[in-house]
Design a protein that fits this description.
With 392 residues, the protein is an alpha/beta fold. Helix 3 packs across helix 4 and helix 5 crosses helix 6. It starts with a strand and ends with a helix. The C terminus is likely disordered. One of its GO terms (biological process) is glycolipid biosynthetic process. This is Monogalactosyldiacylglycerol (MGDG) synthase. One of its GO terms (cellular component) is membrane.
């Protein structure tokens, strides 16, 4: 029985955890000889430290977003020549990582956060870790903290990122696999924009599991809307749910936290577009469902950079805060030229994904698990040909 160790960071529910859980569920559904464990290194090191960092992060992005944005870009989104070594963490966290590996003795490690990837890269280069490691990226760019040297495989969000790693760091191409940002397999893929037949567009508003994202700030605009119906995902924010429900408006329906991915998939199928912040997982689900993406707000740091990349590739539309909301939405959805360009952009994005079937990703992970990383591309290519012949 092989064992895979998944390493996100922090305890709060985030894209790092969602991606890890999506891959874990995928393997559970398609294999019967692998066991899994998901561990947050910070909690493993010191639970009080993890709580302090989590609370500090949430307060920072809430009360001083501009300074967080500046700090993120200065420390985590800089060219390697200007990078920071962060040597202060190494004595504690390198020791704890070695301790964790000795205790768990995994056959494969999957990093969905840059911090554990960085530590493992250093251990590998020092000859202190011979376990295969996969980096699975949860944003549409790669920050400077992610480990690169010694990493056995990279599951990449796009062809653009693959080309960047090839040119900038000369990482062997057989280690680079474009998977998109992995989402749960119950979020099924649409090959065309599945526009509903409703006379009024149906827009899903998502703010993340915690209800963040400035939805409450849109209240007046939503209430005044006369040509669009809205479904508002409130996540675990009960206060937001009760607030939206108290409006008692036929064209605005609040939805509580949904744990069922099948139910979430059904909601995606029932709407014409999504209005959200540019988190990697939600955007990837929308791209897989081929839903037009409107960005109404963003968290500082990662999400702002995500939006830059999405707009550059014409995969998302940014809403202007000072212009009427409904008018902006309709101006895109009812413009055949804009929608055609968006569909072409989504075509290009989806065609660039190399592992676009659950079976092909499972196949690639199994190859890496068996420490045959030089054969990854051949195995993946073979699997994809089988799927194509089967009409998958």
């Amino acid at each position: 029985m092989k064992k895979i160790l998944f390493l996100p960071l922090l305890q709060m529910q985030s894209g790092h955890h969602q991606v890890a859980e999506a891959i874990m569920d995928l393997l559970k559904n398609h294999t019967d000889d692998v066991i899994f464990k998901k561990i947050d290194l910070l909690s493993y090191t010191n639970k009080s430290l993890e709580k302090m960092i989590t609370n500090g992060y949430l307060k920072w992005i809430r009360y001083a977003p501009e300074s967080y944005n500046l700090a993120y870009k200065s420390f985590f989104y800089v060219p390697p020549a200007k990078g920071h070594s962060f040597k202060w963490y190494q004595p504690l966290f390198m020791k704890k990582m070695e301790q964790l590996l000795a205790e768990e003795n995994p056959d494969l490690i999957v990093c969905t956060h840059a911090f554990p990837s960085n530590l493992l890269s250093k251990l590998k280069m020092k000859g202190k870790c011979d376990i295969p490691v996969i980096n699975v990226y949860t944003d549409f760019f790669i920050n400077s903290i992610w480990g690169r040297e010694g990493i056995d495989a990279h599951f990449l969000p796009s062809q653009y990122v693959k080309e960047h790693l090839l040119k900038k760091y000369q990482i062997p191409t057989q280690r680079l696999l474009v998977t998109g940002i992995p989402v749960h397999e119950r979020i099924t893929k649409n090959d065309v924009w599945n526009k509903t037949n409703n006379l009024r567009p149906q827009i899903l508003i998502a703010g993340g599991n915690s209800g963040l994202g400035g939805i409450a700030k849109l209240a007046d605009e939503l209430k005044r809307s006369t040509q669009i119906d809205y479904l508002v995902l409130c996540g675990k924010n009960r206060k937001l749910y009760e607030e939206v429900r108290s409006w008692n408006l036929a064209h605005i329906k609040p939805l509580p936290y949904l744990s069922s991915r099948t139910e979430m998939n059904n909601i995606y199928e029932a709407v014409d577009a999504i209005m959200t912040k540019p988190g990697g997982v939600t955007v990837s689900e929308a791209l897989k469902k081929r839903l037009p993406i409107f960005v109404h707000s963003m968290l500082p740091g990662q999400e702002e950079i995500n939006l830059h990349h999405l707009k550059d590739k014409e995969l998302a539309f940014e809403l202007e805060q000072k212009l009427p909301l409904e008018k902006q939405l309709l101006a895109v959805l009812q413009d055949a030229g804009k929608m055609k360009r968006w569909e072409q952009a989504v075509d290009a994005y989806q065609q660039g994904i190399e592992l676009n079937h659950p079976e092909s990703m499972v196949d690639a992970i199994k190859v890496i698990l068996d420490q045959e990383t030089s054969c990854i591309q051949a195995a993946v290519g073979s699997q994809q040909k089988v799927l194509q012949r089967a009409g998958a």
